[in-house]
Amino acid sequence: MSSLHADFPAPSPSFFSAKAPLQIAVAIAGLVPVGAGLAGVLLGPALAGRGVFAASLDSHFSYLSGLLLGIGLAFWSFIPAIDRRGAQVRLLTMLVVIGGLGRLVSLWRAGTPDGPMQAALVMELLVTPAICLWQWRVEHDAFCRN
What we know:
The protein has about 150 residues and is an all-alpha fold. The protein has one domain (about 15-145). It has helices spanning about 5, 20-30, 30-45, 55-75, 85-110, 115-145. Helix 2 packs antiparallel against helix 6, helix 3 runs antiparallel to helix 4 (about 55-75) and helix 5 runs antiparallel to helix 6 (about 115-145). It is elongated.
């Protein structure tokens, strides 16, 4: 047994140790980055409801939205084998949390953003880490069963 799993007793079956509910949660939560990323690529900074923007700002916003789209698609790609994708889920979660921390700095610096940006902050700093912990539990339970 690896040291990651050696100190934990075999868990009892529960909702949070089942693979299918985690797969469903990742599929649903993945709608946010895929949808927002795609909308950002297509709409640019106008997605935020502001007027006309310089080409450089539009370019940067579209690039970052493309990254967001890629992160969401990557999370979706893990769904079939979610119980064996811990390293990948943790890596993407780290990227999402770092982005959320950047958004938190913006909140401090520029003030409270609109509702969709607040919801994004919740996804980045609460929902995504919770899904990561859930994935770890599913992976751990699958490992203990084998």
